[in-house]
Amino acid sequence: METSGGIQASLAGRYATALFDLARDSNNIEAVEKSLGILKSALAESAELRQLTKSPLLSRTESGKAIEAVAKSLGLDQLTTKYLGVLASNRRLGEVSNTIRSFQALAANHRGETKAEVTSAHPLSAAQVDELKKQLKARVGRDVTVDLTVDPAILGGLVVKIGSQMIDSSIKTRLNSLAHAMKG
Fold it and tell me: What pLDDT does residue 159 have?
């Protein structure tokens, strides 16, 4: 499997690559990816969980026990639970969001897909998501999975990130550009 140098160059990327290799070797890529998706959602929803991952006050043992309890309550697979334990024992739980992102990119690449991070002002319908995937596939020449985020601050339009490429068609950016142009 080929991974980009960018993923392997970061600390989170090295951990994600190790997890991916273990998941691939044990045919558990889908299970791990599902567990990491559950964990990502839990991190987005729970300030306490985010605090747990970043707290320097907890010992390695305490954070390991806490993250194991969280993994059990979320129903995460065994490999992901062990992986979180390794992050806790190495005091790297603060990197968990970055490792999730890197793992998802590795898994998508393994499936021959490209991942796009899409931000919209309002939730997109299933038909809009399908049309967006078709447009992005035509642009990049590969199947595209989308990670959707809603941010009302962009006012309208979309911001799409595919790797290092960003397509910003948000109304906020257009208004800022117009204001800048009017200043001369």
Answer: 92
